[in-house]
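Listing S7. Sequence submitted for prediction.
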Amino acid sequence: MRYEDPAWTAGGSAFADAKWVSPVAEDAPSTVGVNHTRIRGNVNYDYAYSNPYYNMYRFQFTLAPEVDSNHFEFDMRYYTDDSMQGVYVNSTTAMSPLPAGGFHSNPTTDASQNVKLTGPWQAGLNTIIFSVKDTGWSAGFLARMVPTVRSFCNAVPIRIAKTADKTAYLPGESITYTVTAENMGVDTVTANSLADPTPAGVQNAQWNCSSSLATGASCPTAPITAPINFDIKAGEKLTFTLTGTTAQTGSLSNTATLTPGTGGVCAADTGCTQTVSPTLTPVPNLTPAWAPGTPSALTVGTPATFTVNANNLGEAASTDGTLTITLPADMAFTGTPPAGCVVGGSSMSCTLPAIGANTRTTAITFSAQANAEIVNAAITANISDVTNESLLSDNAATTPVSAKKPDGGGPIHNGGTAQPVPVFAPWALAAMGMLMALSGWFVRRRQ
């Protein structure tokens, strides 16, 4: 049975929001021990127990998973009748015995006792059992749990999380990592640090920050670089994003490590480190490269030999592809085209064979000549039509060419033909000869 003494209920207790709880046997048969009959409020209570006797009071609560149990504590203010024999937390003796908390008809005039409970706590359900001893007609217990300062946590938990916008990427794709830091407490934590090295497989990385607060956000001043130093206000959630482009190779695994500032602690459910590990899907990546020693100074009318390599820099073998060679004006292909190549005007198209992964190469060698003088022109090699290739920014390469006549004469123009020498008709040459002869006679006559 439970008896709530009116003097210790919310209307009369010093706590105003707690109730005095006392077990009592009403009209119980006097068959055990010594009967203790007291008249209180014109009611006869017959408690058929031997002195002394003990009552156990159980208090349970659930500890949020983000709270570090090592930093959780509260003050317990209590009254007892007659004495507190001990406190047991999660089946472990926390303290024993405790001072009596007094019992008077007017408890507001009696001093309560205070004690700090520090665990051992655990995430989830926690059980506290209070053992109260009494030698009189009934026993009772009234307690109130309050924060030790401003919070039940003596350190502010900061929860972090780490995600990527996809689980798998192709080379050359955009990638975004998100790190959140959330203040789960009631106080600002200053001088926090977030270490987050850029993965080897990410290029052109850039950090940004946003806050859950409409005003007074704690985001660092841009540009942001890791490690990131920041303050975080009570209840604030900061979101840091790292954006970039995936490289051809390299790990995309990304780890964020939080070092809390003064008064902060990593949330128990996330810890101080969070990692996300998306994968980089292996695909071919063909890129052309002109062979060392490729001729650049040509002689008009003399064929030259050129070699361009089709390199596979990807993590997967290629099965196909097309290499196209484009000559500048006043150049032409000579000789027999390489196997698998077809010449059409100033272009030559070659079907590429399968090329193994990781810098495997196939070479295409051809001959071409300049038919006129050239300066500052270029031959272009371009690769296309490669199945599953995602990185296209490195699919073209050029090599410079210039050309002169064998005697070095004649005007030269950029990327075109030499200007022709003026040609005179026979009658014009005869007239010019007569004019020159007449000019000579006139000069001699004056002399």
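Caption to Listing S7: primary sequence and predicted structure tokens for the chain studied. Residues 79 and 101 are 4 Å apart (CA to CA). Confidence is low (pLDDT under 50) at residues 1-13, 24-40, 104-109, 411-421.
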